[in-house]
Amino acid sequence: MFPLKDDVPSSSFPAINLWLIIVNVLCFVYELMLGDHLNPFLSTYGFVPARFMAAQAENYFDFGRFLPVFSSMFLHGGFLHVISNMWMLWIFGDNVEDSMGHGRYLFFYLLCGFVSVFAQGLSAPGSVVPMIGASGAISGVLGAYFVLHPRARITTLVPIFFFLTIIRIPAFVFLGFWILLQILQGSANLLDTGAGAKGGVAWWAHVGGFVMGFVLIHLFRKKKGRLVRKPWYQF
After folding, report:
1. Mean pLDDT of 32-43
2. Which helix (H) or strand (E) covers residue 168, if one does?
3. 53 in Cβ contact with 47 (< 8 Å)
4. E strands, 85-129, where?
5. Which residues pair with 160 in a beta bridge?
6. Which residues lie across from 168 on neighbouring strands?
7. For residue 130, what are the β-bridge partners?
8. Could you give the count of Cα atoms lying within 13 Å of 153 in the half-sphere of its Cβ?
9. pTM of this prediction?
10. What is the C-alpha separation between 106 and 84, in angstroms, rounded?
11. Backbone dihedral angles phi then psi of residue 19, each to the nearest 5 degrees
12. What percent of the chain has pLDDT over 70?
């Protein structure tokens, strides 16, 4: 299933969401310019679980140790990777930003990404394959959307046998099926003892990010029933 749009309008301009998309795209353009230097760059700024764990005994609070946790969120492995991630962020991120405000949304996004990186790292602590991609942080956005707009309608492209059809699916069905798929794929990945070393999709980053977003939205969303001040000329 591939989402095309939702039916929830945003009441404010999603400045941070748009900024995140632009930064991710610019980082990917920079990757394309690196040529033969791309792999060393990804190895340095992607999150490598084995390297992170090994550095723990040497210097726990070293800045260079934690930098890849954040830089990895803005790197991607190909056109399909970056386009699919940015499309999901474009569809769902504006409503989540609208629910909490710009500053809190940025902090929320980075925090979900931070947790998602460690969720994947714990699933394969010995992996030497760099983990890259914004999907963990975006999964946090999906988790928040699940709470905020469970009955929103998601216009979705669905393959049925050899045909493609467009249907409108409730958000809780679309996102519920999506997170279930991540859990099943991640569980199957754990059974494959060599999967962590080979690399592939960071399923547990998706699960960790989604759960974090599902929980944090209750703390980050604007409180309902806030006092609205009348203009000075009204009594």
Report:
1. 93
2. strand 163-170
3. no
4. none
5. 163
6. 155
7. none
8. 5
9. 0.87
10. 20
11. -60, -40
12. 88
